[in-house]
Amino acid sequence: MTWIASLSSSSSLWEGIEYTAETLVVVCALIEVLADFEHILKGHENEKRRKRVEKQAAIGLVLGLALGLVALVRTNSLFTGEIASARHEARDANDRATDASGKAKAASDKATLAEDRADKAETQAGVAIKQAAILYKQAEDERMARVKIEERVAWRHLSKQQQSVIADRLKRFSGQWGSIGRVSSDAEITSFATDIAQTLSAAGWHVLPPSAITVRETREPAFGNPIEPVVTGVTISSTPDLRAREMADALNGELHSSGYDVVVNSRREPAQGTFSIVWVLVEARPEGPQGDAKLAKEKAPAPAKK
């Protein structure tokens, strides 16, 4: 039965039996020794009792020794099994520890390899970032160079919003006269002259549109004549009256604040009866940025001196 097998394999039980047997041996030996003393059981009539006690003590002594021996053998057997089992478990634990150590070393090797790969990847990433930064700077430099080229050749132009704002400011001269001229049929010149004419018309001015080419006063070709510089930008002239001069200065201020090269001719045109007239002559496009690009360049901080 299961509980019997469990008891037979219990080392604690057999140790208890061994201690009990030893106790029995000690008690029986003590009884046998005491039975030898006649004064305990005196008289002839107690002789048989003494012998019976001695015999029983001897039997108990033998049984105790036999039981103790059996218990000792069984205990040693159980301890030997437990020691063998403990050794087996220790060996298994040692094997598992060895296996775990091997796995730990393999994991450590993998971690080292992964770390090396990570370092290599980090180095490659650093190189890639530097290359990307160089490429970005090159692209940005190219973009800025392209923007500067576009700004240098971009047409002068007044947007619809700019025309509306300027027209509102010039409406105080509504009903006055303005003549828009152009020095050539160049598309850029014609376009900008048209913008100015539309702006003055929106301000309520009487406008002579830039339909005809205005020819500058030139000298007759001859050897030795001075080489005239190219006139660029916008030139504004007016009749000598105060109202016309105010109109010329106001238009000059609006175009100048929009970022365009403008000059007011100090030589006044002859009076045209009682009319205040302003003449606007659109010349060749100046070199360099115009409009918003020019204003942005003027507002930009000056580069630091090295």
Break the fold down into its secondary structure elements and pairings.
Elements: H1 2-8, H2 11-35, H3 47-153, H4 160-170, E1 177-182, H5 187-202, E2 206-208, E3 234-238, H6 242-257, E4 262-264, E5 277-282, H7 292-299
Parallel strand pairs: 1-2, 1-5, 3-4
Antiparallel strand pairs: 3-5
Describe the structure.
The protein is an alpha/beta fold and 306 residues long. It has two domains: 2-104; 160-215 and 231-296, Alpha-Beta Plaits. It is built from seven helices and five strands, in the order H-H-H-H-E-H-E-E-H-E-E-H. Strands 2-1-5-3-4 form a five-stranded mixed β-sheet, with helices on one face. Helix 5 links the parallel strand 1 and strand 2 (206-208). Helix 2 (11-35) packs antiparallel against helix 3 and helix 4 (160-170) packs across helix 5. The radius of gyration is 62 Å and the shape is rod-shaped. It starts with a helix and ends in a 7-residue tail after the last helix. The model has no long low-confidence stretch (mean pLDDT 82).
Task: Give a short overview.
By secondary structure, the protein is an alpha/beta fold. The chain has 2 domains: 2-104; 160-215 and 231-296, Alpha-Beta Plaits, CATH 3.30.70. It has helices spanning 2-8, 11-35, 47-153, 160-170, 187-202, 242-257, 292-299; strands at 177-182, 206-208, 234-238, 262-264, 277-282.
* Low-pLDDT segments: none
Sheet/helix structural class: alpha/beta
Number of separate helices: 7
CATH class of the largest domain: Alpha Beta
The radius of gyration over CA amounts to: 62 Å
Number of domains: 2
Mean pLDDT: 82
